[in-house]
Amino acid sequence: MKNPPKPLSSLLEQFSDSNKPLQSLMSQSAALKELSKALKTILPPNMRPHVRAANYREGTLILHISSAAWQMHLNYMREELISTLRQSVLPSLVSISFKINPDILTSNLQSTELSEYKLKKPIAFTLKNPRKLSLQSSEILINLSHSVSPALAKALKNLAIHGMK
């Protein structure tokens, strides 16, 4: 063979030396890959296939999430994630933004793993520091429930009772 095949990585390295935009893109891609690895070590195991670091710009980390349900879980973890990522990987991190991308799950798991994953019972999600409603806030909710519709009153009372636990 006159010209044996070369690995793509060697070609990219060869062209990136003379091509600044390609070099920049490759370094950003490598940084995002490392960031994704760090993120996966922080997240609970059941959440890992549903989240991917998509971009980092101006102090904001943009994460792609597979569904709104997982986004809700991550919203509860947002401050904890920011502080952990600041300490370990990104000291300049200011905020985290979420974008829903349903294709993440299928791209992260192969088809056999995907079917196994769907059959498993989901792991319960727990916060390290669950928020509690103060007694004063519970009383305000109960007082407010007297002046609203019955359905909303019931919901407010349930929230107040749950907050007192």
From TrEMBL:
Pfam families: DciA. InterPro entries: DciA-like. This is DUF721 domain-containing protein. It comes from Thorsellia anophelis DSM 18579.
